[in-house]
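User: Can you predict the 3D structure of Ubiquitin-like domain-containing CTD phosphatase 1? Sequence below.
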Amino acid sequence: MSGEVGDLIIKWSGQEYVISGLVETDTVADLKDAVFKKTNVLPERQKLLGLKIKGKLPDKEIQLSTLQIKPKTKIMMMGTREEELAKVTEPPAVMPDVINDFDIEEDEIAIENREEFLAKIEKRIKDYEIKILNEPREGKRLLVLDIDYTLFDHRSVAETPAELMRPYLHDFLKAAYLYYDIVIWSATGMKWIETKMNGLGVSSHKDYKICFYLDSDAMISVHTPKYGLIDVKPLGVIWGKYKQWSAANTIMFDDIRRNFIMNPQTGLRIRPFRKAHFNRDKDSELLKLMWYLEDITCEKDFSVLNHKDWEK
Ligand SMILES: [Mg+2]
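Assistant: Sure. Here are the predicted structure tokens for Ubiquitin-like domain-containing CTD phosphatase 1:
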């Protein structure tokens, strides 16, 4: 006769589920079945963190008695229900093998590596259509720019967009264009982006060209402990479509840091440009950013840079 394991507590997605009735001769596969009944996360999607499993036996060959689980042990689980995954991607024909990373805590799995968010990026790569305005040029790096509060004060009142333009905008874009193809990515709709870029004279400038615009439809929503549910701009969408660009040769400017949470190393948070009428004569952020862009062009691999120190 085998002893009872006692209640186990599965922590998943902010909730706790009590699993009871298991005995020591039950296996990890039995445990996962029990977890499935409570959470609807398929066993092959479950990643149970904190179990002391030695070796790489299949789940159904690992008896719970070998794991030295104490009653009321809390086990962190990662995994996504099929219906949630189905919302963002078609399920793969073959389920990938889930590796049990038993020694890592949930918090250590960075947002940018989460399976469910990467699936959303894949979906954007497949479904989001980019309208090329000017073909990418060979050998150029990639500069991705936010609009609101980055290039333009979208809250102040004015007669024309030009009045709300950040100082040095055209000088900045002209200098950047020597080394970078330029992409504009705004969390608004395409109509607004075009209106603003036309109004600022960016779309028709003779000294530089914009490669393409991305709008809010190219963004994905992610859930983070710090911010809750937020929409972000994952550069993986561009990198998936244009293989010449990657973290090694891309830089993104935005006044909101969480916008580049899926590629934290590639983003540079700039000071927002607000109160245009008041700050027009004082703001020199784009001038300084222009110098920074020129400085880093001698670096072959941007992924070694720490943009937080950009002003030094
Ligand atoms: Mg902004």
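The chain is about 25% helix and 15% strand. The helical segments are 28-39, 82-88, 115-127, 169-177, 190-199, 236-241, 276-279, 285-296.
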